[in-house]
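Weekly structure sync, notes
Attendees: PL, DS, HV (note-taker this week)

Item 1: Karyopherin (Importin) beta 3
DS walked through the input record. Source organism listed as Anaeramoeba flamelloides. Sequence as pasted into the shared doc:
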Amino acid sequence: MNQEHLIEFEELLKTLLLPNNELRVNAEKSFRDFQSEQPDLCTLFLLSMQEFSQVKQVHALSLILLRQMVLCHQPPFWSKLKKETKEELRPILLKILKNEKDGYIRRKACDLTAIVGTYFISNNSWDELFDFILSATNSNDLLHIETSLYLEYQLSIYLATHVEEISTELFKLFQFCLNLEGSLNAKSYCIKAISASIFSLSEKKKTLYNSLLTNILKALLEMKNAKEYDLMIESIDHFLPICRTYPNFFESGLIDILELFISFISIEEPINGLKQSSLNFLVELIERLPNLTIQTENFLIETLKSILLMISDLDDDDFNNNENESKYFEELENDFLNSNSYYGESSLTQISMILNEELLIEWVSDTIPILFDSKNKWQEHYTGLKLLMNMSEKCKDVFLFDLDQLLEYVFTFLNSSHPRIRHASLITLGQFCTDFSPILQYSYFEIILNTLEEIIKNEKYEFLKSQAAGVLVVFFEGSEEPGVYSDFYGNLLETLIKTLSEVNIQTQEQFLTAISAIILNGLESLSEYYDTLMELLKQILNEATSLEQRKLRAKAFECASLLGNTVTFEKFENDANEIIEYSINMYKNGLQIDDPQISSFFYGWSKICQRLSHRFNKYSDYIVPILLDQAEKKIETISLEQTNTDFFESDFDSENANEQDCSVVILGEKKTGIKTSSIEERVIILSTIYNICSSLKENYFPYIDQTLTKILPNTEFIYDEIVPSVAIKIIGEMVNCLLFSIKAKIDNRADMEYLNELTIQILKILFTLARKEKQIGVIYIIIQTINTIITICEFKLNSKIIEQYYEEIHNLFLISKKRYFQLQEIKLNKFNENNNNSGEFSSIDLIKIDEKIKDEEGLQFSIIEMFPTLIKFHQESFLPYLNDNLLSYFIENLQSSNDFNKNRYLSLCVFDDLIQAANLNQDQFTFYWDNFQNIFLSHMNSNTPRLRQLASFGIQVCAEKENNASIEKNLEQVLQALHQTIQNKEFNDDNDFHSGTDCAIATLSTILQRFPGKIPSLNDHLLLFFNYLPLLNDDDEAIKAHSHFVNFLDLYSQTLMTEKNFSQIFKIFSQILGTKFINQDTSEKILQIIQLIKKQFNEKQFNQFIQDINNQDLIQNFIQFI
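Item 1 (cont.): predicted structure, written out as tokens:
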């Protein structure tokens, strides 16, 4: 290395320090070429700059570049270097660490040393570095101490294995530094080093390090007193990983920690970062140590009070003196996202999910009136509204009892003079619409809709008009009885349409979203507004042509596509053709990749196709290929493990992925980033394909093969559940499309042979996916789709295929069962560890495990549900595989102590289907009845109506069989069980008791009909049946029972057709004539019986029977029919 070359190299580095221009770009290329072609020489040149150059920035840059080079793995730079070059690094770096006075350069040297040290230390070849670090224990040089601690912090990140080896010496170093007088920098580095190293320690050494906690807290207090807030923030932020992974580290000092951190949050100075970091830590700690924090209720209340102070930490806003109100509000909102108020609000939501419910409800109930009754500051009213909004879900049951008062608060503050209060009130009202739906939508719709209309019409600020429209959307989304609002749709639409031209583009977009929500609710009742709205929407599509209005056009297209549901398809067809042509022309002309119109076109095509059905077919040759091509495109992902290849060091952190519209997915140890918008768009595309193929039916036939090819990759998308779920539904729908094609004779290729091939192909695909799939939600959709296909395919699956499917289903069930027991074991172990205060387990973890357990239970039910389907539709092939083991499984479900669960219900369904199987011979029937009769009879008195219904139905099916000698032997026992079910008054308290009792009545009538002359105590059974009529709930059971009743009036006339019974008979007739609860034959027989009675009695007596019905509406109905 001669002087001239060093000067030239220094100039190159100086050029790299210039602003980004052409000179720098050229310099970057030159450096990369030098680095690639001569790695050893480039390394030595960078090292020599520490002594050669007089420019401090060059010193720092040379260390940064060298670190980037060593970190580079594509290709691996370190392995390219000669051994001699590597050896040069050690003494030079140690020299910099010992002698460099500039703090920034020293830190960069530490960063590089930590990376290089990982290679040397792993080979036990850099003892001098440890000597330098540990010698700080006896040093008076603050720079040496700070450098040692920062270097140890970096080493612990990159090479954790060395920590345990020198942990005792490190403990002494940390203890020494924390007890030093002064040098808060050193203490901050010390806390970071402790945080980084603790993860690599054995449990025994972790306990030793716990003793440092008191001194750590003292160091934080010193920083607070010295107002070194930045150091505090850095130190506290390094506590969070410990809290998440090893929360018991803080257990011994919990009270001191709570007290100290609450004081940090309560600092009067506006130090946002400190308050936010302190609050993040406190919330995390409370979440991770729930059992301990419950013992410290006073501190929890203080924490909540501190959170409220943060929420109220808002400056007065000067709306009145800002000409551009929308821009001003947007700036305020952007500032708000980094404010104490925002962090306080998000923490309040988190902590509410963890705290003892009774404690939380008591505190909220006491606090809200105090905040709302305050006359001092608008900020307190704002805080009260935010508290109300964030607690509404957690305190739902209590709030429901006081909903009148809470809504009164909200509506009062909607009239506040301060725009932020009105804004917070609207947000709170929107949250109520979600949390208290549909009760709020049904009981308070008049005041809510009138208030929102008034705000949209007369509010001064557009952002509040927009928010009111947003609340309308949420209100209608939570509605279950849209007909209730028929008097309000018109006024709301007229107000939105009239105001639309007076507001900015963003508010117009929200207005159109609200109009869409109204359309989805109002549908047919809005036909009178169709012409006005459609004209307005087409005007927007044709005239709002600027780049800024793309989203507005997208909203208009979506709204227009929904509007077709308010009128007949004949009226909509011309407009539909016009807006489809508009979308196709826009698409052909080319749209930018981020144009929101693209997704709106996909969504709109789906809705229009559903409305026009086969009339949409003329556009399918253009639209379907577009959708399939889009569905085939790979969704781009980014590995977050890759080192950034930018010229200077990267600060990228996957924690910030949300700010980049990026979801972080962790699979094993691999972190992957994927754009959220890409997933959402793919879901829209797939949903549109599904809606189009299910609407076009046989007309979708030409696209079946290419759909399977292009959709299949989406089924294996591992980063989201919805994408594969919708793709699987599309694949299943192909069988349905082919079935319609065969019936419509749309193509010579559409025949049963093709159906057979396609069905088998799709079922194989689905079973293969189910074996490989890890996401429970996706497996559930696969099973549902398989079940649907087995149900609808119009050919019998042969025994060989059934055998394969049986094995597949059985294996899926066993795998799910295994996961289920593993989760139960994990839950038990974690619960025991938590009770012993020795585990790292939180209430959130418990909730997640419980959710997974419920998911597995649901999946098992879905899997087993396939067996009744196979019994119903493929009896001949499947019944041989219904072996003793499988029957035993169902019997065990029915013998469990739990009175009702999904599997118990399903098991009864299986037995009902088996008994009902048409091809059972006498021996099989006798076998099943002998095995199941006690099961049916024991469930006749279940506390669950649905189980009583299934048990009664099983007996009813047996009674209807031609070969019913088996049930005849047990008639007395069966009748006794039916009597107990019908007469048990406790069942009358069930909300759904009729489903069980009605079926029992129909079963009793079936037995009376099937076994005439063999019924003991016949009159008692007849009168029980008679006194329970009519049946007005289950159509099928009612038709059957009422048909039997009319027959009994003839067959057992001496018992039933008595004068004292005629009034009751007429009353029964009056309730069922002209209804769905009887068939035509029964209706005609009733009229004949009435005429027969009329002949037996004089007019006065006959009219008295009618008047005894004692209900004018029923009397009128009866007279009308006779």
